[in-house]
Each structure stands twice: as C-alpha cells, then as structure tokens.
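Entry:
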Amino acid sequence: MTSTRIAAGARRTAWVPVAVGGLCGVIAAVVYGIMLGVPLSVFSLSLMGGFGLLIGVVSMGLTLLASTLTASTLRALAISGAASIALAAFASWVLTRGYYFVPMVVTAAVTTVLHISVARAAARQLTSAPTLRHTDPSFTARLLILIAGGFLALFSSLGAVGMLREQLHVGCSYGTEGEAAGAWMCSDGIGYIFPGLALLSGSAVALLTGILVLLGASREGTRRTTLTILGFVPLLWSAGWLSAATLPRTDPLPTGETWLSVWAINVGIGALLAIAGLILAVVAPMHRGSVLRLLWIMAGVLLAAATIAQPGLALATLASAALLAAARLVPILAQTTRTPSGDEFERVNAG
C-alpha cells in the first residue's frame, strides 16, 4: 500500500473523526449523566457534544497535516492521532478542571482509531491513481492554508475574552449605587468559555466546510466559488453575534456612553475594515498585472488593520483570510509558476 494511496484514503475519510467525535461526546454525556445520577439536559448534551466535535476537528486537522507533510504512512497518522489525544487531555484540564478528562481522552482515542482504520480501508479500495486535485501542489498549499487558519483561529480565540469582558462588557453590569457605583462587575474567566466558543463556531464551521469542499468537490469552479462565499462567514458571524449581544442592551452605562457607541468603537470599525479587505480580495482576480498586486496588498493591509484595531476579531479575520487565500490567491500563484498549454490552460481558467 503506497503512501500516496494512504494519503488519498485519509483525505477521502476526513469527515469520519468529525462525525464520530460529536457522537462520542453525546454518548459520554449520557453515560456520565447515568453514572452521576444527573438528569440530562440540552446544556450537558451540547457541552459534551461540542467538545467531542472539537476533538474530531483537531484529529482531522492533524491527520490531514500528517498526510500532507509526511510520507503518509500509517505510523505518521498514528502519531498525529496521539497528538490529538494529548491535546484533548490538556484541554480537559484547562476547560473543565479535569472533570471530563476520561471521556475527552476516550473520544480522541476512538476518533483516531476509527479514522486510521477507515482511511486504510479506503486506501485499499483505490485502484486508480489519485485525482489531479490530490497531486497538484496548489491543492496541498490550499489544504495547508485552511488547516493553519483553523489552528490560528483557535489560538487567537483566547484574545476574544478581553474584548468580551473589558470592552463590550458581556456578562457585566455597571454599578450605580453603593460601593459598586462607577465600577463594572463581571463574570470570572470560566464564564466566557461559551461566548468564546460561540464566536469561534462561525470560523470553525466555515473552515471545516471549506476543507471538506476542497477534498470532495470535483470541479475547480465549485471549490473556488464555495470557498469565496465561506470567506465572508467567519467575519459576518462574529460581527452579527457581537451585535446581538451588545446593541439590544439597555442596562446602565457610564455617563456619555451608549451601547451603540460601545459596539461601534470596539467592533464596528474593525468589522468595516475587514469587510473592505475581503471585498478587495474577491475583486482582485478580475484584474491583472500591477493592479492585481496592488489590490491584494490593500486587502492584506485592511485585514491586518482590522486585526490590530480589534485583536478580539482575529479568530474571524484569520479564518476569512485563509479561506479567501485558498479560493483566490493560491490558484493565481500556481498559474504564474507553471505554464500549462492548450486545453489544460483553458480547463484551469474555466474551473
């Protein structure tokens, strides 16, 4: 069984750990509820199901990374799976103080074993050579960009806590009487896990969908259009969620402030800069030469400016940038580094 066939099998079955992780999380919630005598609720099912889904996504990302960067042997896939188990163990201590350590590690182990098994079975069924999209260097670059965008969005989501608590005052109340007058009273850090996950979910779903479309779509036009549309999802989701959490509020604020001004200063400016950058990135491929380069530079500058203006939006701007780079920038760079002739050139440009 060649490494190429194993890599193709791992990519074809990339959805397996995601589905299995979510299912294992729900099963763990039911089992723990029965063992502890705690009644099941939508909250507990959503919590464990979400953790399981996250583990599945991490396992998928690491496995795809191994199948892209290494010789794609089963040993490499097993090493990536072991890394996902270690990350799940670490996350359980950080997020749940070790309470869900066992189910999270078991979920990671099950998703890894099943993915390796299914990938191996899929590799055996591959009798023909891998398709062009699995051997084209631009395909590998696009896949790596989406995976990297996912990990960067995940790590940058920690910076959203400061935005939610200190700037938008989510989960806070402003004191107007007594000793608390003139001070903000906010939830502790644990209370911002779920708002942070809600923000991150838009980027996670968009990137995950983009990876699956890149792996499964047979036409370049379908991949390019879908990835372009998905590029707007993380930012629009984050801006919309933050608007819903801030603008309807009517509770007290310091003198001279309104909830509209709080939102506009801390979210609105950064969101407008980022949207302008995304639009320029979409328009850029319609031009050639120096105009093309200028538009891409301006798009990058605007996205960077949006992230600097509001670092809490980095989980959205990084995800959107990764999706649009995979949709638009990488194909352009790939075409400039090779000179296809005749029918192939026309087929690439036609998608």
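Confidence is low (pLDDT under 50) at residues 339-351.
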